[in-house]
């Protein structure tokens, strides 16, 4: 639990796994996981300076995801059977207690530039008409950052006001839809995607099966 720090002390000390007390807007970070022991530690660490709480909703991992997540006193850890990417992310949002939410995947990190932009945003006077912020995503693919071919910048809503946004789409391809006014914020979410070709092929096979199953349940054509 974070300790209260007098408002006059702008420079704050942060212990490992303990969030800094913020004075302006409160921000929840929502992360869904399944067997993410290789990613979750760095994902959480990248959020500690900007988050007032971190919610991890796990799909009953069989690796060390739970142990690593719980090693951070700032994390509220939950687990439930996997319902689908969209459903899990919306359930994670529902578990958040603050008005503003940042939704992340475990293989994503907050860049220094985005961290600073979020800290500045939290201190600004609230715009009652603003319900979401689009963030650019920079993908790290097989050892290289991809900044071309439509991969960058990929602006998507990732920061939003609770009650005015929802994950939609078709599993596993999801996106956030917001009601009302949106804007953009400077800085990147860094996405560490595929480690190698085998990892990419396995993910494509997994995702194509999810799409086929989703369309079958809806009575849609799922042939490729």
UniProtKB/TrEMBL annotation:
<feature type="domain" description="Glycosyltransferase 2-like">
    <location>
        <begin position="28"/>
        <end position="161"/>
    </location>
</feature>
<dbReference type="InterPro" id="IPR029044">
    <property type="entry name" value="Nucleotide-diphossugar_trans"/>
</dbReference>
<dbReference type="Pfam" id="PF00535">
    <property type="entry name" value="Glycos_transf_2"/>
</dbReference>
<dbReference type="InterPro" id="IPR001173">
    <property type="entry name" value="Glyco_trans_2-like"/>
</dbReference>
<keyword id="KW-0808">Transferase</keyword>
<dbReference type="GO" id="GO:0016740">
    <property type="term" value="F:transferase activity"/>
</dbReference>
<comment type="similarity">
    <text>Belongs to the glycosyltransferase 2 family. WaaE/KdtX subfamily.</text>
</comment>
<protein>
    <submittedName>
        <fullName>Glycosyltransferase, group 2 family protein</fullName>
    </submittedName>
</protein>
